[in-house]
Amino acid sequence: MARSFLFAGLLASSIVFGQQQGGPQQQAEPDQAVTRVPPPRPFVLPPRIGVVTDKELTLQDALAMALANNKDIDGSRIDREKAVNSVSGAKGYYDPRIGSLISYQKNVTPVASTLGGSATGRVTSRNDLADPQFTGSLPWIGTSYQLDFSSSRTSTNNTFAQLNPQYPTSLNFSFTQPLWRNLRYDDNRHRLDVSKKNVSLTDEQFRQRVMQIVTQTEQAYWDLAFAYGNLAVQLEAVRLGRDQDESNRRQQEQGLLAPIDVVAAQRQLATFEVNAYSAQEALTAAENVLKAIILPDRTDPTWSSALIPITPVNVSPPITPLQDAVREGLANRPELAQVQIAAEINQTDNRFFRDQTKPQMDLIATHTNAGLSGIQLPLAPNPFTAGLVSLSDRINDLSLLAGLQPLPSTGGGSTGGLPPMLVGSYQQSISNLFSGNFPTTVVQLRLSLPIRNRTADANLNNSLAETRRIRNQRVQTEQAIEASVRNAMQAVESSKGRLESARVARQSAEEQYQSEQRQFRAGTSTLFLVQQRQTDMITARSQERRAESDLGKAIATFELSTGTILQTNNIQLR
Fold first, then answer.
1. What single string gives the DSSP state of each residue in 13-25?
2. Do 56 and 310 contact (CB within 8 A), yes or no?
């Protein structure tokens, strides 16, 4: 029974095998009828949009163009210029100032008696004043000073005036000296110190921005180098695919390959063409990124040029020990220098706000020399004794008849009793002024003791809290530098290893592809394996180009992390 089942199974198997053997022969013609071999198709990579010329570009040329044309660097220069101007502005507080007061005044005063100086019921006076001033402050101990010279011409119809017009003059000098608050440090010196520190801060910010732009330029340069290399690899893949397609078509015509193998080669070729178009697009994008960094504006003619990087990657960068690299980063990184400057600014804040908590005590001294002169009025009756003139004359006449002395004069002249030094023109008043005959000296001590000075205390406490925050920021910055240096060193070492492995992978892939080609020609391999080896080889070549670019970018990042990127590229900041 078992034998009958075995025989029936073998018979069934032989029937199925016979059907399978006869099936393809019967279906061969229909398969060949539906498998149509596509005609050869030309491939020409179109020119890139807006690119009409070629321009070779070294890395140093790209860096020089970026430093000369990049708007971010120009903006940092403007910030530094503004900081320098702020220092000049803070010093301007100590610039002496010259001013002047010129006025004209006319007064008409009503009077109700002859004792008011007028019998008409009003006194009219006119005053012309000129008062030039010279003021300023000293930048050392908070002293402020003022010197002014006042001179005027006064005329009046007052009957009591003995000089008309008069020329009063005065020379005044005063200064204010803080004795406690604002003696050692005040708001003006604080603002000047902060302005100077801000110049150093903008210097470090400028250096940091330059370092960042240099790093961006290098990375964009190596991305462009990869884009060119990758496009070359993809175009080589198109060439290999076209050669394979032509070979398959010849073998198909000779009956050595089925039409489907030609279709497979055509599909592989189309895939390579797609990759070539994508590589050209990536090249244009990478080139425009670099152009945006190094060109001054959109009208520069270099936008119409293809930038061809010609500087090779340094595949053997110098190896720096970790601790030396970290030490360089801590010494050269502008971020840490900025934290240090912020700490120094905070120290000036602490000093100023601590000084503002003190009581205010100022010494104020004023010295004045005065001068006066005027035109002598003609002799006129004394308004107080004018009514007694006739009586005085009668008494004097009787005194003469009696042999007595006449009565003494009552000072009836309007200039009676005036010293000669007060009679004269304006020059006489100036002479009296500088003779020092009429000095006035005033010394004052002004004291202000606030019962509570909560504003100053709050400002000081905030400044002390900022001190702690800056201290923490310094620790965080040092840790960030430590981490960035370690990461950058690892990236360089890993990039070097990837490049070496990528080269080995590319060489091995090329050997495998050549071997598979030889086996295919000998009939011991298939087209599928040849295409697979071809794809692997193209991928390995592209990975090698990417590894070279990554190494260049890793070196630039390492130089940025240690703060040596400017020295490495011989860049001097001005």
1. HHHHHHHHHHHHH
2. yes
Cα dihedral 385, 389, 390, 391 in deg (nearest 10): 60
Q: Which amino acid is at 131?
A: D
Q: What is the pLDDT of residues 192-205, one digit of tens each?
A: 999 999 999 999 99
**What distance separates the 2 farthest-apart alpha carbons in the chain?**
202
Contact 157, 106 (CB under 8 A): no
Q: Which residue, 337, 338, 319, is CA-closest to 558?
A: 319
Where exactly are the structural domains of the chain?
A: 54-83+189-354+455-568, 98-139+143-181+360-379+414-449
Burial 445-460 (b: 16+ CB within 10 A, else e): eeeeeeeeeeebeebb
Give per-residue pLDDT as tens, 202-241.
999 999 999 999 999 999 999 999 999 999 999 999 999 9
Least Cα distance to 373 among 151, 71, 98, 42 occurs for 151
* Cβ proximity of 217 and 290 under 8 Å: yes
Q: Nearest to residue 157, comparing CAs of 377, 385, 359?
A: 377
Question: Is the separation of the CB atoms in 445 and 363 below 8 Å?
Answer: yes
Could you tell me if 161 and 126 are in contact, meaning their C-beta atoms sit under 8 angstroms apart?
no
Q: How far is the C-alpha of 413 from the C-alpha of 389, rounded, in Å? A: 12
Cis bond before residue 165 (omega within 30° of 0): yes
pTM, entire model = 0.78
Q: What CA–CA distance (Å, rounded) separates 555 from 274? A: 32
Task: Count the alpha carbons within 13 Å of 316 in the hemisphere toward its beta carbon.
Answer: 0
Rounded CA separation 266/260 (Å): 10
Cα dihedral angle (286, 288, 289, 290), rounded to 10 degrees?
Answer: 90
Nearest to 412 by CA among 432, 392, 427: 392
Determine the topology of domain 54-83+189-354+455-568 in CATH.
Outer membrane efflux proteins (OEP) (1.20.1600)
Sign of CA dihedral 399, 405, 411, 416: positive
Kindly report the backbone phi and psi dihedral angles of residue 439, in degrees, each rounded to the nearest multiple of 5, phi listed first.
-85, 155
Q: Is 68 left (phi over 0), alpha (psi -120 to 50) or beta?
A: alpha
